[in-house]
């Protein structure tokens, strides 16, 4: 049973998302000593609220998957959140800026899972064997906290800044690739702003999915067949503005685009 304070945190963050307004981080306003366990409990309540409203989970997502981000946040583990159906934008579609607070885009490789994956002890190789397809994606993160200013536990409670996702149309078997070598560029209005390779994600994007399976196992959960999972950012995230045309080009996986509307 969640405590009143954990419920308060979930309500605080859901209201910020719905009202599209940034808020001061939870560790400054509600609970300075928020633990990782409590933060995931708050995230669970936030997720449950969305399910109760009739939204459907597309899949979990991994965040903070680069060692550079770990150093920056002083942590040694990625985080996860959940992508919902209302967050999906068609490839080539429009992201209405007024729906969000201060969106940023990052390039990622997504995994369409072919069989349940249950930790602990899952490896990247096991993930690849149970992956139906990989596909390119642009994730739009939109922290509910002012200036993206948060601690590790704040961002966990905030559903790992999850906001919108554009999946590409090219589905390929993971066996066709060395995913760690897949390069990606992220451009705005035709100019390459960021670039990277799959190896930026824990050495190989499948490793991030393995970590997710092992983290979910701690609470008796598993990755489910049919889920589409973002494995973590290959590039840094770029702040978006109205009028931007955003394009992610992935070696062998095609292009994903969207425009930022008003
Ligand atoms: O998807 C991500 O890696 C985002 C994790 C949260 C950190 C951020 O909002 O920058
Ligand atoms: Mg991401």
UniProtKB/TrEMBL annotation:
The residues forming the signal peptide are none
Pfam families tied to this protein: FAA_hydrolase
Task: Identify the keywords attached in UniProt to this record, alphabetized.
Answer: Lyase
Keyword flag Transmembrane: no
Q: Name one GO cellular component term.
A: cytoplasm
- The parts of the chain that form a coiled coil are none
Q: Please report the stretch or stretches of sequence annotated as the Fumarylacetoacetase-like C-terminal domain.
A: 103-260
Q: What Gene Ontology terms describe what this protein does at the molecular function level?
A: 2-oxopent-4-enoate hydratase activity
Q: Does the keyword Lyase apply?
A: yes
Record-linked InterPro entries: Fumarylacetoacetase-like_C, Fumarylacetoacetase_C_sf, Hydratase-Decarb/MhpD_sf
Alphabetized Gene3D superfamilies for the sequence:
Fumarylacetoacetase-like, C-terminal domain
Q: What's the protein name?
A: 2-keto-4-pentenoate hydratase
Q: Which organism is it from?
A: Neobacillus bataviensis LMG 21833
């Amino acid at each position: 049973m969640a405590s009143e304070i954990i419920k308060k945190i979930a309500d605080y963050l859901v209201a910020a998302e719905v009202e599209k307004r940034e808020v001061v981080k939870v560790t400054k306003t509600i609970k300075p000593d928020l633990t990782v366990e409590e933060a995931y409990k708050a995230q669970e309540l936030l997720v449950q609220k969305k399910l109760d409203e009739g939204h459907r989970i597309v899949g979990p997502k991994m965040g903070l998957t680069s060692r550079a981000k770990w150093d920056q946040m002083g942590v040694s583990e990625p985080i996860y959140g959940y992508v919902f159906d209302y967050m999906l934008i068609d490839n080539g579609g429009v992201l209405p800026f007024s729906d969000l607070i201060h969106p940023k885009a990052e390039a990622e490789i997504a995994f369409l899972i072919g069989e349940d994956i249950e930790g602990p002890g899952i490896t990247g190789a096991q993930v690849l064997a149970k992956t139906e397809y990989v596909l390119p994606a642009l994730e739009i993160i939109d922290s509910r906290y002012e200036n993206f200013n948060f601690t590790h536990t704040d961002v966990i409670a905030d559903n790992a800044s999850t906001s919108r996702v554009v999946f590409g149309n090219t589905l390929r078997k993971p066996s066709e690739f060395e995913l760690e070598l897949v390069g990606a560029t992220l451009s705005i209005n035709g100019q390459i702003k960021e670039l990277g390779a799959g190896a930026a994600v824990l050495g190989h994007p499948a490793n991030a999915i393995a970590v997710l399976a092992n983290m979910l196992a701690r609470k008796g959960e598993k990755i489910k067949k049919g889920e589409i999972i973002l494995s973590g950012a290959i590039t840094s995230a770029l702040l978006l503005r109205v009028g931007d045309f955003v394009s992610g080009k992935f070696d062998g996986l095609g292009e994903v685009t969207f425009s930022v509307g008003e």
